[in-house]
Design goal:
- The chain is of the alpha+beta class.
- It contains 13 helices and 9 strands.
- A hairpin with a 4-residue loop joins strand 6 and strand 7.
- Helix 2 packs parallel to helix 5 and helix 5 crosses helix 8.
- The model has no long low-confidence stretch (mean pLDDT 94).
- Bound molecules: 6-diazenyl-5-OXO-L-norleucine (DON).
- This is Glutaminase.
- GO terms for molecular function: glutaminase activity.
- Its EC number is 3.5.1.2.
- Keywords: Acetylation, Hydrolase.
Length: 309
């Protein structure tokens, strides 16, 4: 079997670069359209062991939908499973991440799952705090802790850009208010959602978060649990079923480990008990996932035999 070395990782990255041409940088959030589509970087951290990085691994980018896993974990810690899943479903979807249609035609009382926009907006309403600042402060602290990076901050430009152009997410939120999923604080919930999508990270941060989840919520090499094991189990299962949007089935078959993508081109992955991986490649395909990033993960999965089944 292939051994992980620096040279090997560089080679995987080089071979995956052409795949960025199959995608385009997201432009529906204006600030994201400024990213360089040829950027490609990866960090792989073996739990409690070596760390390897290649390419543009120091590049910062915003969490976007990767934050959906983190807000879910905090909401589960705050409210427990029964309460969270009383307002959001647990089923995968073949529909796009920002679908409006499903809410009206089939869901009636619940968005599909916490990984689509409507589900994540509903989950945001479950995060405790007296106001948006306090709630955001709690989620930022939580992400700083589980990534091991106390310097993570909000990207003000991306946040303002999302807030200004977030009509689609507003329509989802107001529809959810009309059917009783959200209360009167819709604008506050949206504000919180836009903020935690706009936290700047690098692939190192994503790989560290992946490692913590791969280690079931316990900090590798230490004895302290940063997230409850039972909630890690829930979040990772949902990542496996729905983390790559309406490409989750194909990704599960081809790559075979839990991952979560975002429109900025980041992907956070984990191989249970083994490693965390972070990838950035801002050119995304028509289902919202980094085209070169997915290729990096597929190659790693094949060469290192990481598929879970
Ligand atoms: O709400 C949005 O549309 C973005 N802030 C995040 C969406 C996202 O990352 C979906 N990803 N593929």
């Amino acid at each position: 079997m292939q051994k992980i070395t620096q040279a090997y990782l560089e080679d995987v990255l080089q071979k995956s670069r052409p795949y960025s041409q199959k995608g385009k940088v997201a432009s529906y959030i204006p600030e994201l359209s400024e990213a360089d589509p040829t950027t490609l970087g990866v960090t792989l951290i073996e739990c409690g062991g070596e760390s390897y990085s290649a390419g543009d691994h120091e590049q910062t980018f915003t969490l976007q939908s990767i934050s959906k896993v983190l807000s879910l974990l905090l909401a589960l810690e705050d409210q427990g499973k029964d309460k969270v899943f009383s307002i959001v479903g647990q089923e995968p979807t073949g529909d796009p991440f920002n679908t409006v249609e499903y809410l009206e035609t089939e869901a009636k009382d619940k968005p599909f799952n916490p990984m689509v926009n409507s589900g994540a907006i509903a989950v945001s309403s479950m995060i405790k705090g007296r106001n948006v600042d306090e709630r955001f402060g709690r989620i930022l602290d939580f992400i700083r802790q589980i990534s091991g990076n106390p310097n993570l901050t909000l990207n003000e430009e991306v946040y303002q850009s999302e807030k200004k152009t977030g009509a689609h997410n507003r329509s989802l939120a107001y529809f959810m208010q009309s059917i009783g999923i959200l209360g009167p604080e819709v604008e506050d919930i949206l504000d919180l959602y836009f903020r935690f999508n706009s936290i700047d990270v690098t692939v190192h941060d994503l790989a560290n978060i992946g490692c913590l989840l791969a280690n079931r919520g316990k900090r590798p090499g230490r004895n302290d649990w940063l997230v409850s094991e039972k909630y890690v189990e829930t979040a990772v299962t949902i990542m496996f079923m729905a983390g790559m949007y309406n490409a989750s089935g194909e990704f599960a078959i081809e790559v075979g480990f839990p991952s979560k993508s975002g429109v900025s081109g980041g992907i956070m992955s984990l191989v249970p008990g083994q490693m965390g991986i972070g990838v950035i490649g801002p050119a995304i395909g028509n289902r919202g996932n980094s085209t070169a990033g997915v290729q990096v993960l597929k190659t790693l999965s094949d060469d290192l035999q990481l598929h879970l089944f």
